[in-house]
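We emphasize that the prediction below concerns an isolated chain of 329 residues; any contacts that depend on oligomerization or on bound cofactors are therefore not represented. The input was used exactly as deposited, without trimming of termini.
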Amino acid sequence: MMVSSRITSWAALALLFFIAVVAHTANGHDHLSAGYYAKTCPNVERIVWSVMANRVGGGRMAPAVLRLFFHDCFVNGCDASVLLDATPFSESEKDVEPNTSLTGFTVIDEIKSALERDCPATVSCADVIAIASRDAVTLLGGPTWNVPLGRKDSRFAARREFTRAHLPSPNDNLTELIRMFGELGLDARDMTALSGAHTVGMANCMHYRGRVYGTSNTKYNIDPSFAESRRQLCPPQGPIGDAGKAPFDVTTPMKFDNAYYRDLIAHQGLLNSDQALYGGGGVDNLVEMYGTDGDAFGRDFAKAMVKMGNIPPPKGMPMEVRLQCSKAN
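Result of the prediction step, given as a token string:
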């Protein structure tokens, strides 16, 4: 009887331990901290910075890496699900517009490979994206910040319709943008600051064609000379994809600064969803402040990036530290 009681007690403790482990695995964002890898992988940030500086520098791949972080966190939280390839049993978020134009995957893979050599099976791909996106901003002349770490990687990507529904559209209005960001715990100030990521990078013709030709359902004031210059790159009809790429910010397209907001004030936002931030809406004062005070923009952007990086995956989501970022273990 005593033996049976001991076995029962042991089984109960084992069950409690299992539940605790599963809960931690499913909610890997509960205890994020900048020093998460201090003992297990102390060189993690140096390794990420080294690869980013060598592969990205101030070039076009930096905005691509930054964009990966946004598109990952907006769909089921910051869980690196955007990196997963499709399998016979699982869809891929990569195959859904606007993710079909995402790049930067090879940079993340190179960072992950370097980390696997230094500290195997330790640093999640989700943390790699978070650190790399911060370094991308810094390498382009923008602010830096301490990145809370300790995320885990999802074993599954979101379904295509879910992915499409949770990514902002180039034609979203201000109300829709505030709603989408708000559902993720990000307020209007966060949304306005994070939109400043469009101070770098480019958009495909298919995403701004309707704005510069005045044919989109969403219409905002546009500077006539700006519209004409964009039409030179983007014919009214033609191939989609990479054709007619244009920078969000014509003046300093590869410098992370506050020029994006000055463009909006001049009605030179490339996308309708950009110009939606200025022109009689509720965030005009923020756009004007960021347009005149680059330091204020940098501070708010850094805070909002940390806040966005804290978006957790859904409770109960199977999580792990992937050994390869493109597939589950």
